[in-house]
Amino acid sequence: MKTYNNQYILLLLSAVLLLGASCKKNLDINNDPNNPPLERATPYVLFPPAVMSTISCAGTDGAVIGGIWSQYWTQSNASNQYKTIDAYNIQRTDYNALYTQMFSGALQDYSLMLKLCDSLHDYSFGLMGTVMKAYSYQILVDLYDQVPYQEAFGGLNQLQPKFDRGDSIYSWLLRDLDIALSKDLTVTILDENAAQDIIYKGDMDKWVKFANTLKLKMYLRMVNVNPTLARTKITELINSGAEFLTDVDASYSTFKDAPGQDNPLYESNIRSLNTTTNIRASYTMMSWLQKNKDSRMNKIFRAPGAARGVYYGINQGDFTSLSPTYNVAAIFRQTPLDTAYLISRAETNLMLAEADERYFGGTKAKAYYDAGVQAAFQQYKLSADTFIQAGRVYEYPTGATFDKKLEAIITQKWASFPGTHALEGFLEQNRTGYPKYSPVYSTDPSYIPGQLVYSRNGVTGAGKFPKRLVFPDVERSRNSNTPAEVPIYQKVWWAL
């Protein structure tokens, strides 16, 4: 198990000895792993810190980058922390931890864990590890396009692992998921081992649903580049009677209001920075919520007292402006106890709505769509009934074209992600083109609320929106196999 400093794990898992830094520290995946001897490591010791590493990386830098590039929020004009993200100006030395700790923390632990599961014939924890490995690798592939896979974790025998293509990695991950799902998962898990499953406490029916949902998500990513394979595999999956996360989230919520024991985004963005106002509502999201009189608005954002109940947004990337309303712009609500989501019920139902429209004639699409929107509102203890009924603003457009239906589905998915999985909003926009890009900036009278605008201080050139991250300097400087750098506006393998 790689040594790294993760305060969440230190305080959650007293039996696991970890050193070093949080998801902000750069770690080198090419160093010889500092794993304990095999006779001391077990799958049950390795799994919880690996999961927390995935949650921490995806839920800190991943959430901030995804939230800004999805235009849920934007950099406050009174702060500096995230200006490079909002300006599309991320450099090799910025935000490396999502890459480096995902490898040296989560994926390295999953790799060792799965070897041990094979030797122990523990197929239940084998499925858990396979799902979380695929989930973690998918994030890296979706952001970097190519990453080390086949030669990763070779220690001193492989100090410069080659990079594999994203589509190849997807195929290997999906193959492994199929193999893990084919095993006997009926063996009773010992209570002390089930307790180390910090997602579902050993409930394998839920893990099977998680695996199926992840497969659906990965095949949907392929609809633009390999539509035949996507159609074949998704129809096979659904026709097999597979169950999905329609009635349960894949999430972690056992946080405490204490340093290092709280939600990772709260720890990173509020507790560590000692401010609650670093990110404020983007006018893109705020204008959409206001246009639709969406009751989630005051659950997602908080209007400062000086705003006197008015919810202002900041035009995306306009952090150099001295506009007086920017000083009282709404603040993204966060608490130390916020649930960290991997895949939500809302996301799952909306994926199934899309799949049904694409491959099954849309006979169940409205039911899935309504369930997805309802689940998104229920995350805030609200009801969507008055929004999805006939004639209401979020009514499913049953008689519309496929493109209009897809826009409705993905827009509602986009609206479900702030506070749950902000990074996914950015990735899904890259896949589908929804929300649409606006031809004008959000100060223009013709601006349509909810359409994404090019950042006021963007450096990539008008209309060149970010599509990926650049490889970290720690990787490029030590691994000669690192691919040539490309602009962040160059799409990854599956994107539009």
Present the secondary structure layout.
Elements: H1 7-12, H2 43-59, H3 61-69, E1 73-75, H4 83-86, H5 97-120, H6 123-144, E2 146-148, E3 163-165, H7 166-181, H8 191-194, H9 204-221, H10 227-239, E4 250-252, H11 264-271, E5 279-281, H12 283-291, H13 297-300, E6 301-302, E7 331-332, E8 340-343, H14 345-359, H15 365-378, H16 385-388, H17 402-416, H18 422-432, H19 473-476
Antiparallel strand pairs: 1-5, 2-3, 4-8, 6-7
Helix pairs in contact: 2-3, 2-5, 2-6, 3-18, 5-6, 6-7, 6-9, 7-9, 9-10, 9-14, 14-15, 14-17, 15-17, 17-18
Poorly predicted runs of 5 or more residues: 1-36
Coarse morphology: globular
H/E order of the elements?
Answer: HHHEHHHEEHHHHEHEHHEEEHHHHHH
- Secondary structure class reads mainly alpha
Q: What's the gyration radius in Å?
A: 22 Å
Gap between N and C termini = 38 Å
Largest sheet, strands/sense/barrel: 2 strands, antiparallel
Q: How would you write the strand order of the largest sheet?
A: 1-5
The percentage helix is 40-55%
The number of E-state strands comes to 8
Average the pLDDT over all residues and give the rounded result.
Answer: 92
Q: How many distinct helices?
A: 19
User: What is the strand content?
Assistant: under 5%
